[in-house]
């Protein structure tokens, strides 16, 4: 049986997406999603804790994220966890976990004053 590392996140972008090309010519877009954790059920309550997740979206999905999302946009991201490991110049082991998106749903509502294109 294949191991599973799937995650679903619902939150807001902390900055505008950053799109780049790899050395092999593939497009990758990176952004961070902040997820608020409320222990109280009231909508007016301040979040008690916030988690930040780095998202990596590839090719057309990433290009769409880069074009249509911006800081503050509400999204639901589904994807797989990926751990990158490396050694520093001093020989110390480091690692970072990010989410490789398999789906990004744009949840922000269109502004009422936006003109139709």
Automatic annotation (TrEMBL):
Keyword DNA-binding set for record: yes
Cellular compartments per GO CC: nucleoid
Annotated GO biological process: DNA replication
GO terms, molecular function: single-stranded DNA binding
Keywords, sorted A to Z: DNA-binding
Lipid biosynthesis recorded as keyword: no
Complex and partners: Homotetramer.
PANTHER family in the record: SINGLE-STRANDED DNA-BINDING PROTEIN
Protein name (record): Single-stranded DNA-binding protein
Organism: Leptospira ognonensis
Organism lineage: Bacteria, Pseudomonadati, Spirochaetota, Spirochaetia, Leptospirales
């Amino acid at each position: 049986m294949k191991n599973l590392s799937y995650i679903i996140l619902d939150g807001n972008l902390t900055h505008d997406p950053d799109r780049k090309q790899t050395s092999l010519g593939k497009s990758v877009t990176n952004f961070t999603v902040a997820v608020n954790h409320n222990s109280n059920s009231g909508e007016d309550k301040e979040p008690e804790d916030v988690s930040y997740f780095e998202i990596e979206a590839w090719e057309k999905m990433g290009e769409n994220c880069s074009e249509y999302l911006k800081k503050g946009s509400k999204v639901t991201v589904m994807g797989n966890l990926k751990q990158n490991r490396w050694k520093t110049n001093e020989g110390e082991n480091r690692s970072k976990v990010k989410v490789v998106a398999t789906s990004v749903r744009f949840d922000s509502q269109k502004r009422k004053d936006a003109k139709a294109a």
